[in-house]
UniProtKB/TrEMBL annotation:
The lineage of its organism: Bacteria, Pseudomonadati, Pseudomonadota, Alphaproteobacteria, Hyphomicrobiales. PROSITE patterns: 4FE4S_MOW_BIS_MGD. This is Molybdopterin-dependent oxidoreductase. Residues 4-59 form the 4Fe-4S Mo/W bis-MGD-type domain. Belongs to the prokaryotic molybdopterin-containing oxidoreductase family. The keyword Oxidoreductase does not apply. Keywords: Iron, Iron-sulfur, Metal-binding. SUPFAM superfamilies: ADC-like, Formate dehydrogenase/DMSO reductase, domains 1-3.
Amino acid sequence: MNDVTRTPAYCAQCRSRCGCNAVIENGRILAIEPLPGHPSGEKLCPKGKATPELVYHPDRLTTPLRRTSPKGAGRTTWEPISWDEALATIAERMAGIRDRHGPEQVAFSVTTPSGTQISDGIAWVERFIRGFGSPNMIYSTEICNWHKDVASKFTYGWDIGTPDFAESELIVLWGHNPTATWLARSVEVQKAMKRGARLLVVDPRPTLYARRADCWLRVRPGTDQVLALGLANLLIGDGGIDADFVREWTNGPMLVRSDTGAFLRQSDISAGGSPDVLLAAGPGGTPLRYDAAARRWLDDPGTVELDAAYIANVGARDVACRSAFGVFADTASAWTPERVEAITGVPTEALRAAAALLAQSKATSYYAWNGVGQSTTASQTDRAISILYSLTGCYGRKGGNVPGVAAPFADISGHDLLTDEQRAKAVGLDERPLGPGRTGWVTGRDVYRAILDGEPYPVRMLFSFGTNLLVSQPDTDRAREAFERLEFHVHTDFFLNPSAEYADIVLPVSTSWEREGLRTGFDASLQGLRRVQLRPAVIEPVGEARSDTDIVIDLALRLGMSETFFGGDADRGHDHALAPAGLTVEQLRASPEGIDLPGSVPYRPYARADGAGVPAGFPTPTGRLEIYSERLLEHGYAPVPEVSGDAADPDPDFPLTVSCAKVVAFCHSQHRNLASLRRLMPDPMLEMSAESAAERGIADNDWVKVATRTGSFVARCRIVRDLEPAIVFAQHGWWFPEADQANGGTAGPRAANMNQAVDTSRSDPISGSIPLRATPCQVERMDAPAS
């Protein structure tokens, strides 16, 4: 008799982490279904529905493999080995390099927890890397989450926060399309719209939400910073800002010296004055003192001027000063609606309509992600958007973006395990001292340089957790050369992929359905942050597959890190993480749908006062939301987001711009081997306007070649209405799993890899981001690739 059960769980394939019931029959997973009542459990996407296809795919890796053929010599051959032999070999090679050359000469590559099933084990993997002592983890964060999660701290001190959609009057989606990337969040947006919330979309593509928006700004890729400054200029000029918030909670009133660009301090104008005391201007030029260290005014700030000019006597000379808000306002004023339209393509009337929406709403939430984080000005673009949002006064407010979580949890990802000495060795950190390298998140380009050129030192080994750098990152040829040069290379995954073909040992990883997974908050909504869930292993692992967590714990014990890894007991580690919230693993096992923590994420956390009545403020150097960043200035960057340009000079040989966008069927370079998802999109597509296609003799569904100065890739044309004729859109992550892995050219597995065509000679000076969304190109019709 067949026994069908339904086990509460959540899908870990993407950022949505949708709550679900796993349908099990005779130990096999048949399907997953929505889980009503779960904060992300209302709907499931095609990837989730393809779960059984992924789990039982005939190409699943089921045993450790060791390479038996030379690298770069055609078809790769493998032999199965035991787990003990594989892990013993890996530990021996890692220990040898660590002891002879230093742990920094072992680099790691970690796939994204926002788009893969590693999210269950990512904290353990990071703990392993930092505990080992390597500061070199290719995380791809510079082209993913770093700007919204870290660069936003240059402004807020916190990250972008969680949008309070349930209370929002206006929702802004800026370079973020949740219908394709975050289903649970899309559900929340739809609920808000049904309730009456208005929608402002900034996106060059006619997405579902762009078409449904109250205002759609069809911005040209790479010009978002100009657009944000233009909107800020209108808000300031039309009196549409929340002046009380800007005056009370930002560093806008603080005076900035024209000679140094630094804040004017009491110690600048008074012998014995404190360098912690910043000066602002009151009526008639009266200086008002603010103690940044104590987070409080020393004079009554009720009369502080927001847009002020001041002459300070510094060392017997006069120094002109301007308030930080005034400095930003002057920068934004250069971006008139007409000038913004000329650069961004956004019509003046649409710009004014968007500014009016922002000015009218008292509860605006927003989200910006890859669409603005993949350019050579990504960091300052994030700054411009963050400051624009700050002018509305909605950060932290009910209906706005709220920082923080429902309860504290202990961090087990090991940020405290990496010593300052090792942290300083991160490749690329000298060039980008404020970038992701500060926390050991490095770019693939910097690791390839270390492998191939020995700069700043050689990298001898690469340990990859589920990544596919040859497809998901640019510099494809250099990556291939680097992989061939490595002394040792380990890859963990569900399947072999183009990058795994260069490994010496490949380890089979269990899917999330075959292992436990802890989730401390579901961030599609503010309410979902209160849910904590321990998903059980709903089926036994296929073959000999093991979880990422089990793999790194085993290796940690072999490498002498038992104490760091809780004696090898994952439950002890989870209990350590849960303890501040008053939870245990056993409590969660007894409540498979999860436990909702009491209380809620607090609004306006910066306003919470201590016993002396002093508000907490913002976790920034000035204790205030920072319109003007001295920290950026001190490292040679613009303290307010001045435009330096992203687009390359016009090139008559490459008159179009190729950008990219994600689709619901796939996450990054995954899922192309699943038949049900390939039926949704059998081939890579290039979205074009009818006008651009006709000019080139291209019809809908024709195969085309997209060429840039750097390289080329192939795709099928899809005619899309409402696209600007000068812009075309591809999808990154494409490869052909069915193709011969040893075959190159237009029929090879990487023929559709758009990253082969991305120019990486220019990058964001702060984060290292590259122009994945704006590369000059040409498109021509071609015959179909040979099968």
